[in-house]
Amino acid sequence: MATAKKTPIDKPSEEESQELSEQAQRSGMLATTGDIMTIQKAMQELVLANEDNEGHHAQALEDTLEALELELEDKAVAILQACKTASMPIMAIDDEIARLKDRKQKIENAVGRMRGFILENMKITGIKKITHPLVSITLVKGRDKLAIDEDDMDPEEHAIYYLPPKVETRLDRSRIQNDLKNKEGKASEFATSRRVRTTC
């Protein structure tokens, strides 16, 4: 009886291996993208939350992160990718804050000029009170202001009129830390902080 000839198992070609690798990467990316979108949704709800339910959404975000069925390394990558996307508007927000601050200052300056116009004209005309159904304006005397230029004062000649310089009282933590280390300070006297440093 003739034995059946065994057919060797064909190894995948380089192109097939590349395709299989790309498919694996794509499936992994899709899973990670889904995780990132889940995190982003929870983050967005926290960002838009008002003061009354902010704590609820903060806990919901933490629960979402805990529920991700990923190893810590993969979970960290997903979280940082979500943070990167969430941080994109920050620069635009900073620019808008600067623009609004500048606009606020211009409005305040314009209002001050208009109120100053009323003040000066009431002084010139001698009018001390304006009564109207919509508004009442009264010219009142403010506090006396010293009309002396500080540059005209000699610090040595008029020393009694100069306040002593302020000395800031501040704890020299670096010196204390060095002294404790030299004296082998107790571990309880040191608080080592940790922070997350990322490169992406």
Q: Give the structural class.
A: mainly alpha
The biggest sheet amounts to: 2 strands, antiparallel
Distance between the termini: 66 Å
Strands of the biggest beta sheet: in what spatial order?
Answer: 1-2
Query: Helical amount among residues, as a percent range?
Result: 55-70%
How many helices?
A: 5
Determine Rg (CA atoms, Å).
36 Å
Q: Which geometry do the CA atoms define? A: flat
Order of helices and strands: HHHHEEH
How many DSSP E strands?
Answer: 2
Global mean pLDDT: 75
> What oligomeric state is this?
single chain
Poorly predicted regions:
1-12, 23-31
Beta-strand percentage range = under 5%
Describe the structure.
With 200 residues, the chain is mainly alpha-helical. Among the domains are: 19-88, no CATH class; 90-140. Helices cover 55% and strands 3% of the residues. It has five helices and two strands. The chain has helices at residues 14-48, 54-67, 72-86, 90-125, 173-182; strands at 129-131, 136-138. A two-stranded antiparallel sheet has the order 1-2. Strand 1 (129-131) and strand 2 (136-138) form a beta hairpin. Helix 1 (14-48) runs antiparallel to helix 2 (54-67) and helix 1 (14-48) crosses helix 3 (72-86). It is flat. The protein starts with 13 loop residues before the first helix and ends in an 18-residue tail after the last helix. The relative contact order is 0.05.
